Amino acid sequence: MELIKRKKKSLLLELLGFLLLNVLTLCMTTPHITTIDWIVKETSYTRLCSTKKILTVNGLFPGPPIYMRKGDRLNINVQNQGKYNVTIHWHGVKQLRNPWSDGPNYVTQCPIKPGASFAYEIVLSTEEGTLWWHAHSDWSRATVHGPLIVLPQLEKSYPFPKPYKEVPIVLASWFKGDVMKIIETALQNGGEPNKSDAFTINGQPGDLYDCSKQGTFKMVVDHGNTYLLRIINSIMNEEMFFMVAKHSLTVVGTDGAYIKPIKTSYIMITPGQTMDVLITADQSPSHYYMASRAYAGVVYDNTTTTAIVQYSGIYTPPSTPLFPNLPNYTNTNAVTTFTRRLKALATKDYPVNVPQRVDTQMYITISVNTRPCVKDSCDGPNGSMLAASLNNMSFVEPKIDVLQAYYNKIKQVYKPNFPNKPPYFFNFTAENLPNTLLTSEQGTKLKILEYNSSVEIVFQGTNVQNAAENHPMHLHGYSFYLVGYGFGNYNEKTDLKKFNLVDPPEVNTIGVPTNGWAAIRFRSDNPGYGSCIAIWIDIPAGAWTLF
């Protein structure tokens, strides 16, 4: 009997030891998830000779940078002490099976009201490189934004020589007026909002603007060293050229993925895009302008923002830094030449998985339409109100977020019938299109995709209202492959043959060429939702499609 008791006791101790070992192993293998606190609040800033209050995170413009490693998780508690509703989007983060933290208001969440808070969880997967975060409600994105840098996993390295130092370069817009009042006026009157009064580099307009010389951002470099510029275009609407006088640039990544290195004198970067760019301090010690200006749209800010690359050491600085020869505002050839060179790295460590066959094909037109206004009293054409559209559908924000309605089966919030093609076909890029094409349909429509299906979307720009321009398009919850693009109307018989299905760049944001088209492919392997959004900040009614 005593022997049986001892055996039972021994067995119990072994079982307890096994359980304790499992708990210890679980604790050792479960990653520690850091939590940080953000406060969204108004802060006074002086730019262009005047002071105003702007919405910020923790009082900073640009906002605080986030540094993570590939595969990490991070919790961020956001407390809204501002006057307006706000949400935060983690631009380029796939958020696998975590759409609730993605951020677009009335799509994945209701906005954070003044005085309220919301806990976000950033879940990284395959992303590596430069991403960013920004407000995703009204025009608060103008000042509420910042870098999100994803470093390689520990004991891993870059697929290029390690730079001496990394420097975030955030391009942004600056308005003398209150940005929220600007968009509110545009929404009420139905016309275009005012264009920005300046562009900024890391929060400073640069010394070409009034009252701005003293604050100009300076990047101090040591001769012979190589630096990694993490460039983010957070500008409200303009595609931007970017150069550094007398220095070559080597682009090694875009939108959180690596590409085959491109040696170039300039880059063209679309709103929402990010680029990883190497620059070597190999010129005579001096001061050199870093400069950026717009590629022309229908309405655009034609000013130029600058910063200074300043060599360390003892030398006589020039009275004026050397200025780069930026492409002209209307140089479409410079845009096309640069964009065509973007190709995925496509190595064993960074493979490409482009869908070779397609389950779902969509052809989506992008237009600036109108909608009727009471007594023809609005600021759009013939007293109408401007409204952007995809396949002639202008998105209407629901009263509750779409994701909640989907999972809780709440009816009459949205319709799952967004069309795969436009309601009618015409010469989309022709001059002086008829007025019968102006009015768009209003609604909240979704496209339902089968899990793990392969999807191809051809975005077609149009010249409705003679308002053709380069349109930024962004996909939430996914990266995608830019397999082709061109000018004029897309022709499936001839253009499909030109698709790059070998090493197209994997991106999350593209610019659809002015009076042209762009084709993307991806696999719908992230359950929940994805929203394909035209970043049409200059048009009161936005163009969205939800998947």
Overview of the structural elements:
- The chain has 547 residues and is mainly β.
- Helix content is 11%, strand content 36%.
- It has a six-stranded mixed beta sheet, with no helix packed on it. A six-stranded mixed beta sheet has the order 21-20-24-29-26-27, with no helix packed on it.
- Strand 22, helix 4 and strand 23 (441-443) form a beta-alpha-beta unit.
- The N and C termini lie far apart (68 Å).
- The model is unreliable at 15-30 and 532-541 (pLDDT under 50).
Shape: globular
Helix-and-strand structural type: mainly beta
Output mean pLDDT: 90
Distance between the termini: 68 Å
Which spans have pLDDT < 50 for at least 5 consecutive residues? Answer: 15-30, 532-541
Sheet of most strands? 6 strands, mixed
Rg from alpha-carbon coordinates: 25 Å
The share of residues in helices is 10-25%
Q: Based on DSSP secondary structure assignment, what is the total number of beta strands?
A: 31
Oligomeric state of this protein: single chain
Strand order of the largest sheet: 10-9-12-17-14-15
Tally of separate helices: 5
Strand residue percentage: 35-45%
